[in-house]
Amino acid sequence: MHLQIDHKGRITHAGPTLAKLRPDRDLRGVCLFDLFEVLRPRAIDRVSALRAQAGGKLQLRFAQPPKTALNGVLAPLGAASVLNLSFRMPVQDGVSDYALSAKDFAATDLTVDMLYLIEAKTAAMDASQRLNSRLQGAKIAAEERAFTDTLTGLKNRRAMNNILPRLVENGIEFSLMHLDLDHFKAINDTMGHAAGDHVLQEVARIMAGLTREEDTAFRIGGDEFLLIFQGMTDRGKLQSVAGRLLSRLEQPIRFKGKPCHVSASIGIARSVDYGKPDPARMMADADAALYFSKRSGRARLHFHAAG
């Protein structure tokens, strides 16, 4: 960076890099001492005093914000003088503050080598951040796959075993609704596994459509499903949801133009029916209530008896 001043201290020329530091101001004709404060040596406010320091190190800063500090060396050039300048702050800060690049410095300037190092470091850090982002994304995707049933898109048993203990630990009331399809084996036997898979996917879609955003649906076995109702333990509300599920699942599910007939049996356990809820016991109790529903004629629901 450099500028040229006449014998009166007026700027007659400013180098392009220095001009970038004050892009909104034409520096030609500006008095050097209006543009800069001379910090070292002190009490220099005339060109004659400045020229007396020719070849020596000067410390300056811009008089107006941002008051960037600079080092300078004055070289007389006849009646005029040339002032070479460099940043007193770390070069990377100056480059960053003023959006400078290697093109703004002479090829022989050591700053260029520093800029290349900074750019190389920045490029390496950017590449590292992109790699870390991809790795984090891959990790999240892998975890999501690990907790998702690939056929239905519902959560799987592994996810259930993670969620239930957290609800208990956080003291959140919840209900378990264990659902098992009736007559599902007949579909696989008579219409094939493709039809069976289609029925399971439709059941998953129906469950998702009849539950709230805060509820979670799981496929925990071949034709076994589980719903966790977070914050819902009211028997009337649970019975209403279960009733809608039973009614909807009794409607034929069509596969390649042919109807597939299934129904569902449901067992329900509520955390409020236990002194201290235990996920394993609640699962067993919901399962027992489910099979009571099956023994009672299928296509019905039953609550686990409290106590």
Q: Summarize this, please?
A:
The protein is of the alpha+beta class and 307 residues long. It is 42% helix and 24% strand. Helix 7 packs antiparallel against helix 8 (193-209).
Report on this model:
This protein has about 300 residues and is of the alpha+beta class. The chain folds into three domains: about 1-100, Beta-Lactamase, CATH 3.30.450.260; about 105-145; about 155-305, Reverse transcriptase/Diguanylate cyclase domain (Alpha-Beta Plaits). The chain is built from ten helices and 13 strands. A hairpin with a 5-residue loop joins strand 1 (about 1-5) and strand 2 (about 10-15). Helix 7 (about 185-190) packs antiparallel against helix 8 (about 195-210).
Present the secondary structure layout.
Layout lengths: L1 E4 L5 E4 L1 H6 L10 H4 E5 L6 H5 L5 E6 L6 E9 L2 E8 L3 H8 L11 H37 L10 H13 L4 E9 L1 H8 L1 H17 L6 E4 L4 E7 L4 H15 L3 E3 L2 E3 L2 E8 L8 H17 L5 E3 L4
Parallel strand pairs: 12-13
Antiparallel strand pairs: 1-2, 1-6, 3-4, 4-5, 5-6, 7-9, 7-12, 8-9, 10-11
Helix pairs in contact: 7-8
Mean pLDDT: 88
**Count of spatially separate domains:** 3
Order of helices and strands: EEHHEHEEEHHHEHHEEHEEEHE
Which outline best applies?
Answer: rod-shaped
Radius of gyration, whole Å: 39 Å
Which spans have pLDDT < 50 for at least 5 consecutive residues? none
Return the structural class: alpha+beta
Described by strand count, sense and barrel closure, the largest sheet is: 6 strands, antiparallel
Q: Which homologous superfamily in CATH is the superfamily of the largest domain?
A: Reverse transcriptase/Diguanylate cyclase domain
Based on the coordinates given, report the CATH architecture of the largest domain: 2-Layer Sandwich
> Beta-strand percentage?
15-25%
Put simply, the count of helices is: 10
Task: Going across the biggest sheet, name each strand in turn.
Answer: 2-1-6-5-4-3
CATH topology of the largest domain: Alpha-Beta Plaits
CATH class category of the largest domain: Alpha Beta
